[in-house]
Amino acid sequence: MRMMKIETERLVLKKLVDTDRERLVSLIGDFMVSKTLSNVPYPYTLNDADEWLKIVDNEEFNLNIFLNDGLIGGVGLTLAEDDFYELGYWLGVEYWGQGYATESVRGLLGYVKTNTPYEKFKANVYKENVASAKVLEKNGFKRGEDIEVFSMSRQENVPSVNYEYG
Question: At a CB cut-off of 8 Å and minimum separation 6, what does 76 contact?
Fold first, then answer.
């Protein structure tokens, strides 16, 4: 698979490489980050990072967010049911509140809508994660139904909201 690289105003979206493993563990392994994500274990280990690298190698639109060549987060689309792509994203705590998530989601969706036939996207956000909901709304997602999503890091179901685009 070719190395995809999407450049936005401040960021580069691209695949992780082995040398990013420890940085990945330190960022996503922070409970402040992992508790906002459904499929991330806590504690997050190098073994988890290795498993993640194997998974994303085979998924074209699972990318990571780099600022000045440093890993700061991740953004990706995974094919779900009914021709919908499910959007997920995260940032290391020190990068919250600076517009990086909004910019990276806009960059990825723009690329996918321009270069593929895909136009239907969805995302789930924990109700308590107001900042993440704003990222979706700024990118044109519409709030849908209330649901519950299992959190691997918390080991419990968390009240969530489903968002759809397209």
Answer: 56, 59, 61, 62, 63, 87, 88, 89, 108
